[in-house]
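Help!! Second protein's tokens look totally different from the first
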Amino acid sequence: METIYGSTFKDSNAVYACQLNGKGGVIEFSESALATAGQPFWQHLDYKNQSCRQWIKHTALLSAPVKEGLAGENIRPKLIRSGEGAMIMLRTINRNEHARPDHLISFRIYINDRMIISSRHRKVDAIDQVMADLNNGTGVKNTGHWLVEVAGAITDEVNDFIEELHDSLIAFEDNILEQKTPGRGELVLLRKQLIVLRRYMAPQRDVFLRLASEKLPWMNDEERHLMQDISDRLGRGLDDLDGCIARTAVLADEITSIMADAMNRRIYMMSMLTMIFLPSTFLTGLFGVNLGGIPGNEAKFGFGLFSMLLSLLIAAFVWWLKRSKWL
């Protein structure tokens, strides 16, 4: 088994570089330090940083598929075995400032019993949380424990976001019951967020399930059981996503129905107005011709009398429409 010294990570320009002390804390990272199963190394890299990319490209610690996974472009969640280690691609919620949560962050991990190499471009809150626990002395003790903690934190973030989307959906449904339609594009955005989350979290659940069933030497039975629980939690979140997606389809149909009813009411009202003024329009058109013999042409009060008769005719027609329940 190849010996791994701290000097191997020289010039990696890591975001985090530490060595776990096996007791929930970290020890000072040094080039002369030796990686062991009890005290593994953790290097957290930014794959868009040129120094990090060059280190990934030239290091002898990693195989070609692992290098491609750590520094490649956006990838769907998956697990690749590499000897006794594993290359894991995950997605998590984007909680960075001025970013939409559904613009998921791609997070990559290569892990074995003696080292963890993780990479991302945008900040991952779950990683910061794990690092904060290590600095406080209440963190992970080995690589298997590290993976369980990170997977659990990511899953909690995802389920919290699913709850936010569910609350938004309930607000839309309450507004629909009050005949209030959402603003242009709001329901479309909600449906898109649900579908994007479903697309990436379904394979991520499968990754966690496979980690729970794989006999990786650096994961004990308790850690595999915890990973199974994490997979189950994410599975319940996916069930909620499926239900929310179906409910958005019902909402879209209901909004279409409300808009169609509103349009039909407007058209019906215009038709009623046309019917009300149809007799008077006919009479005014008839009496408006420039021909001799029009009744009342010479009468002093002819126009007033004619207007009064038209008003009575319109009133009588409105009464008839109401009696016939057209109005």
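Here's the second one for comparison:
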Amino acid sequence: MKKINFIMVLVFGLCTRLFAQQTPQYTQYMYNMSVVNPAYMINEPGIIQLGSLYRTQWVGIEGAPKTANVFAHIPLGEKIQLSANYINDRIGSKTMVNQNVFNLDFAYKIQLTEKTNLSLGLKAGVNQLGIDYSNAELQPGQMVQNMNQSNLNIGSGLFLFGEKSYVGLSSPNLIPNKVISNDKNLFEDKIHAYLIGGYVFNFSNSIKFKPSFVTKYVQNAPITFDVAGNFLFFDRFEIGASYRYQDAVNALAGFYISPSLRIGYAYDYTLSDLEYFTKGSHEIFLIYRLDLLKFSKNYSSPRFY
């Protein structure tokens, strides 16, 4: 028990100091790429895509991160898409760190060739961070105050895509912000940069395979990356796996309950030193496609990214 308590103090002491330097990690980011790239477009005029994702990380460790994401992709014609993202990220038990992020994205598409498009994206939003010390175990005579701080968030991105492939470069947070609590500089919100890409292979009319990757760079931190491979069968059932460098191997599965409703699940098996204290991480998502203008007949086989 002492060893576990020591690990907890170490892990969450570090996480608290680095909390704003690393945005929440998603295994199934590919189902809502606007969370890392504001230029992402579903490119289906008339189709509104609504979704939610929930992640519970490092199950079995008290106070481990829990993240919820609600999002919407709303095309405004052939060339423009608006996306909205709300993210709640919570970490800690005795000392609770709670982050709420709300972003709006504007993406504009430029047609380069008959089958290739370039999308330019801008992100604007607010990042609200709170630290609650109400249940913290303090030293005798130690006085602390709860903290709430809100900061502006601005980001941008490029997204080059065709029928079977995509590549994107983005920075969803271009404004570094310091977080100060009880007259101490706890951490600084660092600039993030993402490079994403993928390609869809049509093995047959009923089987598609999509390898993909995401690389993340945070100022003054090591580069991290995920690589994944997903199979789609009969445009209905999806299964795949991914690897996060020096962190986890992941299994993914998804299913179209109907042409409009899609669900998915991912399990992360931890490879870091935390593997001795956790049962892994779980992630679920739900996506609903709303065809207000009855345009879906033009997109009988939705794009596989």
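Reply: Different proteins will give different token patterns, so don't panic. Residues 202 and 246 are 31 Å apart (CA to CA).
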